[in-house]
Amino acid sequence: MIYAVVAYGDPVLKKTAVQVEKFDQDLNQLIDDMFETMYDAHGVGLAAPQIGKSIRLFVVDTSPFDDPELKDFKKAFINPIILESSEEEEGFEEGCLSIPGIRRDVKRPSKIKISYFDEKGKKFEEWFGGIKARVIQHEYDHIEGVLFIDHLSSLQKQLLKGKLSDISKGKVDADYRMKFFKR
Ligand code: NI
Asked: pTM (2 decimals)?
């Protein structure tokens, strides 16, 4: 099932998400649906709050990047915790399915160590770098109620105000289904 992607302006995107409690069939179905929703929207990552579910779960698949190392990086991260971040940072132009039409350079740590559970409830602890670390940190932010534009300077954010207001009102040009918050 393809979900509508929650657009900027919905309070669910600003909430700290809660732990996943049950590793059951429903969770596995939800993960399948999130992958389907992400592929339909041509994204490389999708967090549960972006389909209106405020739980600590996100999926990534970096195969659209033209890089053999990123080809098979398809994973669900459940109840993840970023344990360590490198001091070294790098910039990368990010976008977000909830904020279509806006891309900006965001600085983040180049490497991170993260613990997480997979869909079967197995725990992992791993270091990731490069694009993988980039996508993971962007999605991790989502379950903390943070968006990539929150990393921009106040001036940069100010300059985006009109565009963001348009998005929240449904004035967007996206080729996937979106859900807009009604006040
Ligand atoms: Ni995003």
From this structure: 0.97
